[in-house]
Design a protein that fits this description.
single chain, mainly alpha, RNaseH_sf, RNaseH-like_sf
């Protein structure tokens, strides 16, 4: 099976068999797909209709959908570095509203407006050096 995938130019995954949550990013994306109002519950009528649906979904997901884990900024805006400006403006708006009516907020932080740092699925761990081990 792996050889056929290799012949077709498909990179095989090292996911564990029968482990559905091996890639949380993919699992989250699948759920987002299935919960879209235009998800075809009866399936796709053709390969072309499936491709067209995925293209529309991908555009919506990257260009329009504001992700909660990205502080309600679209992935495209984050990728382009525009999230910093958007979040700074949002912070100013929140601070202004809080200054006008401080009792409404009760002294608590309203929303975090700092950009989200990059995320990786399997980050490369820094090798432990002897010097670091001596400090501990």
């Amino acid at each position: 099976m792996r050889m056929k995938a290799y012949e077709l130019g498909v990179v095989t995954s090292y996911s564990r068999p029968r482990v559905s949550n091996d890639n949380p990013f993919a699992e989250s994306l699948f759920k987002t797909c299935k919960y879209r109002p235009n998800w075809p519950t009866e399936g796709f009528s053709s390969l072309d209709s499936a491709r067209q649906w995925v293209l529309r979904f991908t555009h919506w997901y990257n260009m329009e959908h504001k992700h909660s884990q990205l502080r309600f900024v679209t992935p495209n805006k984050r990728h382009m570095g525009e999230d910093k400006v958007i979040l700074a403006k949002r912070k100013q708006t929140i601070d202004s509203a809080k200054a006008l009516n401080p009792a409404r907020w009760g002294g608590r932080e309203v929303r975090v407006c700092t950009p989200v740092p990059p995320t990786t699925l399997n980050p490369v761990k820094e090798p432990k050096s002897i010097d670091k081990m001596r400090v501990a």
